[in-house]
Write a structure and sequence with these properties.
single chain; about 0% strand; elongated; disordered C terminus; 32 helices; about 775 residues; mainly alpha
Length: about 775
């Protein structure tokens, strides 16, 4: 640090207290050791005897002790009259625990060679037991003080080891025995020989102290106190980033914390590992392999898997050879995890059967819960006990037999996100192999998962198929089914339903733009119009906007929307032959070559000439064989009379022109929160500065014809409010009194009319008329 000249003469450095024989040495021991020359023994050389190695080590220890004695003599005698030497003498006698800790760190930083005992004492402080509960208040306070002192020592020693004072940054340290076995024995009679033995011993001691410090950090990372645990994890990650010494062990310790029961500790470990990868990109593959190996450990929990996947799908890739190979390895890891976690469950859901074979034995906790369950007497009690036992057996099965509907959807989302991020960097040959082997499993899983998970799987399948510039009828059937599920009232109870539907609509729009089947495009449009009547108004407006974009690229669809399309049932286009084997649904089965074979309207076959529907079938499984282009779009007429003004305006515009003019995002602009922001005179964040603010004076002066449907309510509200403020208070009071009088008169008239109506028998005549109308309706339905 820079000395303040105003405080007087600058004191001499503690380096002057070192022995004169070593005053010309570098202050850092490993730099001094690297400066000395050593000769290798060679491959055929005979290793030294253990007695010779022990004698050399004793010589190095004696030299270090001499250096330490000279350092202590300089502090305690008149030679150490500097300010720092006096401060050290005073702190060692009367200083507090934190002062003694700072003094030990200072002397180790100044000369590690002469202060190996101080370094060992610091490590011993880090390994000390902080104490737990129990005992009286005095014992608790003492244990708490020791714990705080231990945390301070860990922080100080971690910073010391991360610097260049103790550990080299470019290499790993070696033990004294390893150097003696590989290098020629130095001549202790020379100055360089004595220095070599001394620094060999210093390296051996520092390596031993560092190993003990890592043990202390491991114990700290497992401590019950969250603060101590966080300090241990942070110190391990810092040393892993700064020094190569013991990096494999520290990497394993940090990766293990991804499965810590404490969420904060697991999240901290994931964040710190990301920082290590950012500083050392060359360690990316090693760290990913370590995390991937943790995912396949026995009895690993779903939370640990989730944090592992969070780290893995956050890895960035490039098109370099090393990153493409890593992307291929990660893709294989993701698909293998997908098969183990969800593959067996998807097969059971699709087959409709139960799999009694469990990959792993049931856990002890589930057995204990099963034993603690009280047994009820009676027939219903036995049935309930049997069902509970069956459920416990299913829950205790291995992770591969888990139900995808019961598994946390975040885990599946993390897996699919990792697949989507790694796939663009996989080689073309490898990607084709992955698609062919794992695509059927994704399709099976999409049919049994929740809507959110199914849409994520559909996005992954679309990315895989788009890489090959191809599509499949099976994928179209999946997306067509997901559109129907999006309209399920049970699926949009949560707040994230809007984002899920937006992603699904993006997939539909991308598919329809490149689709050559006019019938399939019409089926998608009609399915969205059907679902728009069952979802919330923002989502309905988003679907109408997607249909408008489809009409812009498909003129036939636009003609069908505005009612100008001709009847598609032209007898000259499809030639059908009646047969005795006619089906009951109006579709004729023909076996003659070149004719369509009709089995029904499910569209299960891949042959395009198989199904020839005679009318639109909304429940068709395959959109290509739904006959969506054979009838007028009656769904749009229902949306024209929708209760929401924005839906009604967009549907009317689509039915009249085939195009909707809207420059925003209706799924965000038409929500309740956006409505309340406008009501509170808050300008929307995505609005331009040139637009008139809702609720301003300029907004009230605009003509009503220029107001959009979503702002019409606000316009009328603010207009009526401004007109009410312009009236004098007396007039407003008089108007309110007149209104109440008129309402009372109207109520009296209503009650009088009702009394006369029921006294004259009008109610009986009305019920008889209603019964006649019901009979007429029944007759019409039967005919």
């Amino acid at each position: 640090r820079v000395w303040n000249e105003g405080a007087g003469k600058a004191p001499a450095s503690l380096a002057t207290l070192q022995p004169p024989a070593f005053s010309d040495e570098p202050s850092i021991w490993h730099e001094a050791l690297d400066a000395l020359t050593s000769t290798d023994r060679g491959a055929n050389a005979k290793p030294p005897k253990p007695a010779d190695v022990a004698r050399m080590k004793a010589t190095g220890r004696d030299l270090c002790q001499a250096a330490s004695d000279a350092f202590e003599k300089g502090i305690t005698t008149t030679q150490g009259n500097t300010q720092e030497a006096k401060w050290l003498r005073q702190v060692r006698k009367t200083g507090t625990a934190s002062d003694r800790l700072a003094a030990s760190v200072l002397v180790v930083r100044e000369s590690c060679l002469a202060n190996l005992k101080a370094l060992d004492a610091l490590v011993e402080t880090c390994c000390g037991d902080g104490g737990g509960g129990g005992g009286d208040s005095h014992d608790k306070s003492a244990k708490q003080a020791r714990r705080q002192h231990r945390m301070a020592a860990i922080r100080a020693l971690s910073e010391l080891f991360q610097s260049d004072v103790l550990l080299p940054s470019a290499r790993r340290m070696r033990t004294f025995e390893a150097r003696a076995a590989s290098l020629v024995q130095p001549d202790i009679t020379t100055k360089d020989g004595a220095r070599t033995l001394m620094y060999w011993y210093v390296e051996d001691e520092v390596k031993r102290c560092y190993s003990r410090f890592v043990d202390a950090l491991e114990a700290a990372s497992k401590d019950m106190l969250a603060q101590m645990k966080g300090i241990g994890i942070k110190a391990l990650a810092g040393l892993l980033t700064a020094k190569p010494e013991n990096e494999q062990r520290m990497l394993s310790l940090v990766v293990n914390k991804l499965g810590d029961p404490d969420r904060h500790a697991a999240s901290q470990a994931s964040f710190l590992l990301t920082g290590v990868v950012a500083v050392h990109p060359a360690m990316k593959r090693i760290i990913c392999d370590e995390v991937a190996s943790m995912c396949f450990r026995r009895n690993v929990g779903f939370r640990a898997l989730y944090y592992c996947l969070l780290f893995l799908h956050g890895i960035s890739y490039s098109h370099r050879k090393a990153d493409t190979q890593l992307a291929s390895r990660m893709m294989a890891t993701y698909f293998e995890l997908l098969g183990r976690l969800f593959g067996n469950a998807a097969a059971k859901q699709e087959d409709g059967g139960d799999n009694d074979d469990a990959n792993e034995p049931s856990s002890r906790s589930s057995k204990k819960k099963d034993k603690k369950t009280p047994k009820k007497k009676g027939r219903m009690g036995k049935a309930a006990a049997k069902a509970a036992k069956k459920a416990a057996k299913a829950n205790a099965a291995g992770a591969g037999d888990a139900d995808p509907l019961a598994v946390d959807s975040r885990l599946l989302g993390a897996l699919l996100t990792g697949i989507r991020r790694a796939f663009p960097y996989v080689d073309a040959d490898r990607s084709d192999e992955l698609i062919e082997s794992h695509l059927p499993r994704l399709f099976k899983l999409a049919h049994v998962s929740s809507l959110k998970a199914s849409v994520q799987i559909a996005a992954v399948v679309h990315q895989l198929l788009d890489a090959r510039r191809s599509t499949s009828d099976r994928f179209h059937r999946l997306v067509y089914e997901l559109l129907s599920r999006a309209g399920d009232t049970a699926s949009h109870a949560g707040g994230e339903h809007r984002g899920v539907v937006n992603r699904l609509l993006t997939i539909v729009l991308a598919l329809c733009r490149d689709d050559v089947s006019h019938t399939r495009v019409c089926a998608y449009a009609r399915r969205m119009l059907q679902v728009a009547g069952r979802v919330k108004p923002p989502t309905a407006c988003g679907m109408l906007l997607v249909v408008s974009e489809m009409c812009a690229s498909k003129p036939k669809l636009r003609d069908l929307m505005i009612g100008t399309a001709k009847d598609a049932r032209d007898e000259d286009l499809v030639e059908t032959f009646a047969d005795d084997d006619a089906d009951d649904d109006g579709l004729v089965a023909l076996d003659a070559p070149g004719n369509a074979r009709v089995r029904g309207g499910d569209g299960s076959s891949a042959d395009p000439s198989r199904d020839v529907p005679s009318a639109f079938d909304p429940r068709a499984r395959d959109p290509r064989f739904s006959g969506a282009d054979l009838e007028a779009v009656w769904e749009l007429g229902l949306l024209v009379s929708h209760v929401h003004p924005s839906v009604r305006a967009m549907a009317t515009q689509l039915a009249s022109t085939g195009r909707i003019s809207y420059n925003g995002d209706p799924t965000a602009d038409l929500t309740l929160m956006s409505f309340l922001h406008k009501f509170a005179k808050k300008k929307a964040k995505d609005k331009g500065a040139a637009e008139v603010e809702v609720g301003s004076r300029a907004f009230g002066t605009l003509p009503e014809s220029e107001i959009s449907a979503d702002d019409l309510f606000h316009f009328r509200y603010w207009r009526s409010k401004e007109q009410g403020q312009e009236e004098p208070p007396a007039k407003r009071r008089r108007l309110r009194e007149d209104d109440f009088e008129e309402e009372d008169d109207d109520d009296d008239d209503v009650f009088a009319d009702a009394d006369t109506y029921y006294r004259t028998g009008g109610a009986q005549r009305q019920r008889a008329a209603d019964d006649d109308d019901d009979d007429d309706d029944i007759d019409i339905d039967i005919d």
